[in-house]
Amino acid sequence: MGKHIKIFDTTLRDGEQSPGCSMNLQEKIQMAKQLELLKVDVIEAGFAIASQGDFNSVKEIAKTVKNCTVASLARALPKDIDCAWEAVKYAKRPRIHTFIATSDIHMKYKLKMKPEEVLENAVNMVKYAKRYCEDIEFSAEDATRSNPKFLARLFEEVIKAGATVINIPDTVGYTTPDEFYDFIKTIKENTKNIHKAEISVHCHNDLGMAVANTLAAAKAGATQFECTINGIGERAGNAALEEIVMAMHTRKDILDLYCNVDTTQIMRSSKLLSTITGVHVQPNKAIVGNNAFAHESGIHQHGVLEERSTYEIMTPQSIGLSENKMVLGKHSGKHAFEDRLKTLGYHLSEEELMKAFEQFKELADKKKVVYDDDIEVIITRNAIENPQVYKLERFVINSGNTITSTASVVLIKDDLEIEEASMGDGPVDAAFKAIEKIVGINLTLEDYKLHSVTEGKDAQGEAVVKMKHNGKIYTGRGLSTDIVEASIKAYLSTVNKILYQTRE
Ligand SMILES: CC(=O)SCCNC(=O)CCNC(=O)[C@H](O)C(C)(C)COP(=O)(O)OP(=O)(O)OC[C@H]1O[C@@H](n2cnc3c(N)ncnc32)[C@H](O)[C@@H]1OP(=O)(O)O
Ligand SMILES: CC(C)C(=O)C(=O)O
């Protein structure tokens, strides 16, 4: 099973410090509920003293969330700790997270305090917080640029004062995996009572190593990972939760770590955050980017169609996606093209397939992505060359909101007019039933869509129908400024396609 890692999510605190990622009360509550579904261990709900809004959010989240520890950040100041407690005290499992910087740079220029003053203050504030709450996390801000001997001494004292979690942040994303491993090992070896506290890490991504550093820390003894959804956070962000969790999940063999996160909630969490903040992840973002489970090149598409694991190290389902994506573009090959045609309900002969594939490649040279609609146009254009067994001559519809719709349809086959009439559930249904009487083919309507393909009052409507016949799906489309006529044409084009493709 491996070593258990607690996931501390700070999307609502450090994540929110990301420019453009502010969330209001309702949005934070919604996000917190999703984090609970994701099964993180700790939700850092905010920095209670930062504003009335932040205080309210932490308090409401504390009241709402039942299955996670809820924490608030607090500087090493009594007023911050009072405020944090006032907000988290409603939680089933409250935590006060207090911090102070320990690097020479921060102590000298920012805090304007001597190391001994910082140490004394840290100890006093942990004791102060402990009067309120059992679970106290202490963070040494800018730990990775701090003197490890000083840090170990300070940690020893704050653990004596009651800290239950010791956090070692790489505040400015400065460290590297090997260095961070050594650093934590040194801290562990030099902090006598370290076994009385949990070791946590909090890595920033300034050099793009936040996730790697976080994972390296586990080997040295860290058992809590601090991270955010989509890796949002101050500057270049925090370690991305989805990357950490899926690395543990996918590389159990070498990492030997596990956590409680329900990975199938990852995509939903990522999308919810993007929707709330309006900040979308880059397409090639690991795990949750639009392209993370998309394949465009022919060789890869062929491989994946034959055996998914050729180019996918995780299943899309494992993060809550229904399936992978085959993007058709100029790098795609015949295998993927044929596969898409089948999905769209086209069953072409080898000759037809080769012709359509050539046209597809020509189009793909001009367009970045060839969409299903483009393919349908190629195929339909070719299909128009199919002999039309039945042609629409005329139709009359009687419809209204107080009468049952009726349709009378006249089709031409072999220069002969055939007429049928039918009632139906609306004008389109009545017309379809009249045609069905004429053509005598057993069809099941699987899908019917109408949309305008041009703009303005005289817009052409396009009807697309998908019909099931003998277990196969056939697609037909019709264009007209009259939507009933477009529907009839779409239906007829399906009928003609079936008759052509199933001809002896
Ligand atoms: C590494 C991190 O991510 S830390 C968290 C960063 N997040 C935030 O800062 C977001 C929320 N912050 C805020 O809303 C505000 O900064 C507040 C409410 C916390 C403080 O606001 P202000 O009182 O206006 O102070 P301001 O932000 O300008 O400066 C910070 C003050 O806190 C002090 N300070 C900074 N960290 C700590 C600490 N851990 N413990 C005690 N004091 C601290 C600074 O020395 C400075 O003190 P000074 O006002 O006596 O010079
Ligand atoms: C307060 C601490 C945990 C922090 O956010 C950092 O050091 O980056």
TrEMBL record:
Which CDD domains does this UniProt record tie to the protein? DRE_TIM_IPMS
State its cofactor: Mn(2+)
Give coiled-coil spans as residue ranges: none
Question: Its GO CC terms?
Answer: cytoplasm
Q: In which pathway does it act?
A: Amino-acid biosynthesis; L-leucine biosynthesis; L-leucine from 3-methyl-2-oxobutanoate: step 1/4
Signal sequence bounds: none
The Gene Ontology biological process annotation of the record reads:
L-leucine biosynthetic process
Pfam families linked: HCS_D2, HMGL-like, LeuA_dimer
Q: What is its EC number?
A: 2.3.3.13
Domain Pyruvate carboxyltransferase: from-to ranges: 5-267
Keyword Protein transport among record annotations? no
Q: Which UniProt keywords apply?
A: Acyltransferase, Amino-acid biosynthesis, Branched-chain amino acid biosynthesis, Cytoplasm, Leucine biosynthesis, Manganese, Metal-binding, Transferase
Q: Which GO terms describe its molecular function?
A: 2-isopropylmalate synthase activity; acetyl-CoA C-acetyltransferase activity; manganese ion binding
Q: Which PROSITE patterns match?
A: AIPM_HOMOCIT_SYNTH_1, AIPM_HOMOCIT_SYNTH_2, PYR_CT
The lineage's top-level taxon is Bacteria
Which reactions is this enzyme annotated as catalysing? 3-methyl-2-oxobutanoate + acetyl-CoA + H2O = (2S)-2-isopropylmalate + CoA + H(+)
For this protein, the record's SMART domains field holds:
LeuA_dimer (SM00917)
Q: Which residues bind Mn(2+)?
A: D14, H202, H204, N238
Region (Regulatory domain) residue ranges read 391-504
- Its family? Belongs to the alpha-IPM synthase/homocitrate synthase family. LeuA type 1 subfamily.
Cross-referenced NCBIfam families: leuA_bact, PRK00915.1-2, PRK00915.1-3, PRK00915.1-4
What is this protein for, i.e. what is its function?
A: Catalyzes the condensation of the acetyl group of acetyl-CoA with 3-methyl-2-oxobutanoate (2-ketoisovalerate) to form 3-carboxy-3-hydroxy-4-methylpentanoate (2-isopropylmalate).
Subunit structure and binding partners? Homodimer.
PANTHER family per the UniProt record, alphabetical:
2-ISOPROPYLMALATE SYNTHASE 1, CHLOROPLASTIC-RELATED, HOMOCITRATE SYNTHASE-RELATED
Q: What is this protein called?
A: 2-isopropylmalate synthase
